[in-house]
TrEMBL record:
Domain of life: Eukaryota
EC category name: transferase
Organism name: Aegilops tauschii subsp. strangulata
Oligomer and partners: Homotetramer.
Pfam families: Prp19 (PF08606), WD40 (PF00400)
Swiss-Prot/TrEMBL keywords: DNA damage, DNA repair, mRNA processing, mRNA splicing, Nucleus, Repeat, Spliceosome, Transferase, Ubl conjugation pathway, WD repeat
Protein name as annotated: Pre-mRNA-processing factor 19
Residue spans of the WD repeats: 259-291, 304-345
Subcellular location: Nucleus
Pathway: Protein modification; protein ubiquitination
């Protein structure tokens, strides 16, 4: 009673009518289903040719190998080897899965870094585009002719005179009267001014200590070269080596706005509180006028390129309608704040210090 397929005693023996061979029922059914013929004689065979053999339920005899101790040890060894092979295959699959997971995580991290870098570049590009869009109308307005009448002819500001220098409109008598009136009024007030009792003494200044520190500019280019305090607000403006000017709210300890546009360090800056303006001078030979907006942002409305060397100092006149700049090219320029036009440019080899020159000119005004 041995199955012709498995070589073991079958649990449900069946016999083929055609060949008379004995089979395990489940095995022959699967084989007929797949091939449709006898596995031994290769003749056509169907389930109708299979006859079930009725047998008594007896205990299956022990395999021959399990009849002795060496046989049992062999069986155990084979089972152990199969278990170890299965465990090794599982470890290999686990190792492969870990490598695939690590590679997927690395790709995900790299993709996140690329996306973050692209977003940063996109935001910077948008900021530069918005800055350019704000500067184009201002630059077009700055190109508008500021003309004066000279010898019956209308001269443009950017026209070149016989000496090879630009023709400037000059300071007209109305401006001189305005400056003189302002000077007279301030002089009268200055004579009546008294030393305030809240003025700190030298001893009190020596006892001053630092209570806070705020890194406003880029750490890769540290250094502040100029500073100004708003006369009516608790706001401090600083110009740094990183080519940016920063407006800082001392009360809240927050940066209100960063003025970016200069290509080199900012050497000087001043507030013009009447129209919420900020004037900055830079080592890139330019002066910029920044206009404050409703949301606290500042945009450049004028870029002045009258100097040929580093701009060292800016001074705003008390009327808050004009300002003066001085540079290392031994010139100082007198500007109209509202139009951004240079009314006069004076060349002098005696300007050893632009800051002293500006202070002297303001006293004269």
């Amino acid at each position: 009673m041995i199955c012709a397929i498995s070589g073991e005693v079958p649990d449900e023996p069946v016999v083929s009518k055609r060949s008379g061979l004995l089979f395990e029922r489940r095995l022959i059914e699967r084989y007929i289903e797949d091939h449709g013929k006898c596995p031994v004689t290769k003749e056509e065979l169907s389930m109708d040719d299979i006859v079930l053999v009725k047998t008594n339920k007896v205990v299956r005899p022990r395999p021959l190998q399990a009849a002795s101790i060496p046989g049992l040890l062999g069986i155990f060894q084979n089972e152990w080897d199969a278990l170890m092979l299965s465990n090794f295959a599982l470890e290999q699959q686990l190792h492969t899965a870990r490598q695939e997971l690590s590679h997927a995580l690395y790709q995900h991290d790299a993709a996140c870094r690329v996306i973050a870098r692209l977003k940063k570049e996109r935001d910077e590009s948008r900021a530069l585009l918005a800055l350019a869009e704000r500067q184009i109308p201002a630059s077009m307005a700055g190109v508008a002719p500021a003309a004066v009448v000279s010898n019956g002819k209308r001269a443009m500001e950017d026209e070149i005179g016989p000496d090879g220098k630009k023709i400037r409109p000059g300071i007209n008598p109305v401006m001189i009267d305005e400056l003189t009136e302002c000077n007279t009024m301030l002089s009268a007030q200055r004579k009546k001014r008294q030393v305030p009792p809240s003025l700190a003494s030298i001893d009190e200044l020596e006892r001053y200590t630092q209570i806070s520190s705020h890194p406003l500019h880029k750490t890769n280019k540290p250094g502040i070269l100029s500073m100004d305090i708003h006369p009516s607000k608790d706001i401090v403006a600083t110009g740094g080596i990183d080519t940016n000017a920063v407006l800082f709210d001392r009360t809240s300890g927050q940066i209100l706005c960063t003025l970016a546009g200069h290509s080199k360090k900012i050497t000087t800056l001043k507030f013009v509180p009447r129209d919420e303006l900020v004037v900055t001078g830079s080592a890139d030979k330019t002066v910029r006028i920044w206009q404050g907006g409703e949301e606290g942002n500042y945009s450049c409305i004028h870029t002045l390129k009258d100097h040929t060397a580093e701009v060292e100092a800016v001074t705003v006149h008390a009327t808050q309608k004009y300002f003066v700049t001085a540079a290392k090219d031994n010139t100082w320029c007198f500007y109209d704040i509202s139009t951004g036009s240079c009314l006069s440019q004076v060349h002098s080899r005696r300007l050893q210090s632009s800051l002293c020159a500006l202070a002297y000119m303001c006293i004269q005004c």
